[in-house]
Amino acid sequence: MRTGLLLLGTNWKMNKTIREAVGYTRRLLELLQTIDGSEAAQVFLIPPYTAIQAVKQASDGRLWVGAQNMHWAECGAFTGEISAVMLEELGVDLVELGHAERRRYFNENDAEINRKVHAALCHGFRALVCVGEQLEDKRRGNGRAVVRNQVRTVFADVQADSAPRLIVAYEPVWAIGAEQADIRMEYVREIQNHIRTTLQKILGREAAATVPVIYGGDVNLRNAAALVKESGTDGLFIGRAALEAENFAALIRASVQALG
Ligand code: PGA
What we know:
The protein has 260 residues and is of the alpha/beta class.
């Protein structure tokens, strides 16, 4: 059973100037009005830091706007980093933590992501936390174990009363950025169920049942409807296929239609 509204979001990664970001946001809002049933979805945008404020303003309270990362400390000698206090001023609705590219290119590990999760919760943000196995893990049949260990560490010591502010993005590393990744609905279902079972041990059964678990990694128009209908996911988290407002709107349309 789905936890609530279908969550449909995009992380723009290191793309878009402020001007492009505002143009996108305005266009998406126009297009959303033409989509029947779009109220069944909560749409969110995660721009680069430089465009957050402008996108937040342009979104007119109708979209959630997030940050792609955040440091765990409130201030200090951390050149190039951004803190929760700074993001609070921008009014962000969520903070994405632990994306595979942060782990791969910037060596983030689960223990650091756990510190960030606590900092985000402490500042009242929703924490959208990414987990996912490598291709090698999947090939060896270790996908479940790898994801379980990630979930255990990134959510360590998180209390049940924070559950309403948690979102887990299951993003298999082998699917992110891939052309035509071999995404099997049964596999996504299995790993997402496993994420929830692991969350139960941390938050308790009732609280864990309310945490949305969404899917990301090569989501596109060919697979969005099937993911919504057949994988049991609570939402979709999209990169390349949502980089243009028209394309994101088409994905939103296909996803809410798939809800039936
Ligand atoms: P992609 O990226 O949709 O371009 O594969 C997904 C992600 O990084 O979340």
